[in-house]
TrEMBL record:
Catalytic function, reaction form: L-glutaminyl-[protein] + L-lysyl-[protein] = [protein]-L-lysyl-N(6)-5-L-glutamyl-[protein] + NH4(+)
Protein name: Coagulation factor XIII A chain
Role this protein plays: Factor XIII is activated by thrombin and calcium ion to a transglutaminase that catalyzes the formation of gamma-glutamyl-epsilon-lysine cross-links between fibrin chains, thus stabilizing the fibrin clot. Also cross-link alpha-2-plasmin inhibitor, or fibronectin, to the alpha chains of fibrin.
DNA-binding found in the keyword field: no
GO biological process: blood coagulation, fibrin clot formation
Cofactor note: Binds 1 Ca(2+) ion per subunit.
Species, as recorded: Nyctibius grandis
Compartment(s) of residence: Cytoplasm; Secreted
Length: 734
């Protein structure tokens, strides 16, 4: 029987025994949605026109209209609505007659892919309610006029990123009536770095403008002694680029239900950016033979490459590291993931990830190219993407290395990352994905060895400072170079640097010694770390305790690193470095206190006042490492809210907000906000100064509108102090 007989029928994807539905991994494909879904037999004389009917849907999708303005998507060259998740947007529905909430019932349906399912987040029915919960799907009516209603719709802060189809469904006694398929109402939903509940939330507006909204960048290249730079056009807002980026996820066959997770998206994108093993976007070529293609240095930006790939579906020739990184950056920024392009000068390409580059010399002392497999790149470009890492311990969110250049396989494919920059710095390379490889790129030693006539190897020289001498990216808001070497590694030759290296070795980065020794931890010494409970603005102490259970006398070189972290576990910066030598008497415990002064942390403190400490100690007599990490949070003072007078709807009442300044400094330019839905409109008051230890009292008069249980919420904000809140439940009588 010939194979061509069933070409007319639709190709049915193969089912396997484990799933009821085929995999849903294409945003492009759709299913048929019935316009009339009958509940049973439809009686004669039933006329759908008798019921509420949708005449038109207005999406407010022009660049100057409210949605694209508020969602920072007005730059996208696209006629469709583009919004960011976890933030409300508006649409207007016009019916054939005025909407009567008592009898009419309608809801919205957002669908994505060919097999929409509610539990997978690919079918989202939204009932219209009275309140929008932040970061959860919902809709409420904000305006009614004649036959039309205006809705405010909130999307989930974790929802799938992609292109959704919108239907409006109306309930009738005999069945559900739906609007017909209309691509003009398609809605793109992107990541939202402006939304605190989004995994890619970035707290600095200048950084968001740079790492999400800037569509040009700079590539630093050349070498460590001769740094060159060139511009690169990312073009993430150009026509069809958003569709091309969504196509990349289809190409990588990423399940739609995984497309709300920036970790998964980065991981599959790092594979699909290069053409090795999956026919991805760019074919790499490093041999100067660019026949039948464009030389990597000829590209000026990502747009041509992505559009060519989107139309031809074949790898675009040719790229080298900065081309992969430029296109990857476009992809990330286009979807709303903050991203930047990084250059590492003198980058190690360590084929067996043993943290040393083996250069074998021949009899004359020249490098023997036949047996030397490792290499040093003058520079290598990769990307960093900003996100939380709920899959790792606290402290490892923030910038993650992702690399689309095909160098080595990871889990069977050419891809790399996301790997936490903070984990690489401290040597905690046990955390996924590919941290040992990136650690080697910036930290390898170069070992030059010569083979003697008798076959024995003689090590001639070890160069520990050559690799990863300088790591840079473009500065925020300008074209200059910003050095970020210290984000990746401690000062070359410092005790901390060697400690991080030994920690990395302990966690399984292969580091060959002359005779391969198996890692044996220090069993007879325990180390513990305690942080004193502290209120914001006060000094506190942390205690490192060693228990030496042996009969030996030890000394421990100890290093404490205190970091300020976002509440999501993302590190902002190191505010405390302290190293000391601890003498450990046999069979005894020794405790060492380190005082953390408020002056050390206050200037850099973030809203949530949380710290993350790394402690690493080397037992000098044995060379063994002890490592520990701990997160701790300061107590933030709160606002006190009180009410006076009768709490009755329609009668005047008074609300007071009180706050005592706990810091050892005067607070300046303080803004207080007070709001209570149904009780009072949001009110703002500025205070020039609050001296230390003094109490501020703000009294507000208001007339509550609605009876019932209401909440008053107050917040205080100034440069030195953020995330100061107070709330009070009030019962308003009729």
């Amino acid at each position: 029987m010939s194979e061509t007989t069933n070409t007319n029928e639709e190709k049915k994807p193969p089912l396997n025994g484990r799933r009821a539905l085929p995999s849903n991994n294409s945003n492009e494909e759709e299913n048929e949605v019935p316009e009339m879904e009958a509940f049973g037999l439809i009686p004669r004389g039933f006329n759908p026109k008798d019921y509420l009917r949708v005449v038109d849907i207005h999406m407010f999708k022009e660049p100057h209209e409210i949605n694209k303005q508020q969602h920072h998507t007005d730059k996208y060259y696209s006629p469709k609505l583009i919004v960011r998740r976890g933030q409300p947007f508006e649409i207007q529905i016009e019916f054939n007659r005025p909407y009567k909430p008592e009898t009419d019932q309608f809801w919205l349906e957002y669908l994505i892919g060919r097999y929409p399912q509610q539990n997978k987040g690919t079918y989202i029915p939204i009932i219209v309610g009275n309140v929008l919960k932040p970061g959860e799907w919902g809709a409420k009516i904000i305006h009614k006029e004649n036959n039309s209603i205006r809705l405010s719709i909130m999307s989930s802060a974790t929802c799938i990123v992609g292109k959704f189809r919108l239907y409006v469904a109306v309930w009738t006694p005999f069945g559900i009536l739906r609007t017909h398929r209309n691509s003009a109402t398609d809605t793109y939903i992107l990541f939202n770095p402006w939304c605190q509940q989004d995994a890619v939330y970035l707290d600095d507006e200048k950084e968001r403008e740079e790492y999400v909204l800037n569509d040009v960048g700079i590539v630093f290249h050349g070498n460590i002694n001769d740094i060159k730079s060139r511009s690169w056009s990312f073009g993430q807002f150009e026509e069809n680029i958003l569709d091309a980026c969504l196509f990349l996820m289809d190409k990588a066959e990423l399940e739609l239900s995984g497309r709300g997770n920036p970790i998964k998206i980065c991981r599959v994108a790092s594979a699909v950016i290069n053409s090795r093993d999956d026919n991805g976007v760019i074919a790499g070529c490093w041999d100067n033979m660019y026949t039948y293609g464009v030389a990597p240095s000829a590209w000026t930006g990502s747009v041509d490459i992505l559009l060519e790939y989107y139309s031809s579906k074949q790898p675009v020739r040719y790229g080298q590291c900065w081309v992969f990184a430029g296109v990857f950056n476009t992809f990330l920024r286009c979807l709303g993931i903050p991203a930047r392009l990084i250059t590492n000068y003198s980058s190690a390409h360590d084929n067996n990830a043993n943290l040393q580059l083996d250069f074998f010399l021949d009899g004359e002392g020249k490098v023997d190219t036949k047996i030397t497999k490792d290499s040093v790149w003058n520079y290598h470009c990769w990307n960093e993407a900003w996100m939380t890492r709920p899959d790792l311990p606290v402290g490892f969110g923030g910038w993650q290395v992702v690399d689309g250049t095909p160098q080595e396989t990871s889990d069977g494919m050419y891809r790399c990352g996301p790997a936490s920059v903070q984990a690489i710095k401290h040597g905690h390379v046990c955390f996924q994905f590919d941290a040992p490889f990136v650690y080697a790129e910036v930290n390898s030693d170069i070992v030059y060895s010569r083979r003697e006539k008798g076959g024995t190897q003689v090590i001639e020289k070890i160069d520990t400072t050559h690799i990863g001498q300088l790591i840079v990216t473009k500065e925020v808001g300008g074209d200059g170079m910003m050095e970020i070497t210290e984000e990746y590694k401690f000062q070359e030759g410092s005790a901390e640097e060697r400690l991080a290296l030994e920690t990395a070795v302990m966690y399984g980065v292969k580091k060959q010694t002359t005779q391969d020794t198996v890692y044996q931890p220090q069993m007879d010494v325990d180390m513990e770390f305690q942080a004193q409970k502290a209120v914001l603005g006060s000094d506190f102490k942390v205690t490192i305790t060693f228990r030496n259970k042996s009969r030996n006398y030890y000394t421990a070189t100890t290093y404490l690193s205190g970091n300020i972290v976002f509440y999501t576990g993302v590190t902002k910066n190191e505010f405390k470095k302290h190293s000391f030598s601890a003498k450990l008497e046999p069979s005894s415990s020794s405790a060492f206190d380190v005082v953390i002064k408020s002056s050390e942390y206050l200037s850099d403190l973030l809203d949530q006042a949380s710290f993350h400490f790394f402690v690493t100690a080397r037992i000098n007599e044995t060379g063994k490492i002890l490592a520990i990490q701990k997160a701790t949070v300061l107590e933030i003072p709160t606002l006190r809210i009180k009410t006076q007078g009768e709490l009755v709807a329609g009668k005047e009442m008074s609300v007071t907000v009180e706050f005592t300044n706990p810091l050892k400094q005067t607070l300046e330019n303080v803004t207080l906000r007070l709001e209570g839905p149904g009780v009072l409109r949001t009110m703002k008051k500025e205070f020039r100064q609050i001296p230390m230890n003094s109490t501020l009292i703000w009294e507000v008069k208001c007339v509550p509108k609605r009876p019932g249980l209401r909440k008053l919420i107050a917040s205080l904000n100034c440069d030195a102090l953020r995330h100061v809140y107070g709330e009070l439940n009030v019962q308003i009588q009729k």
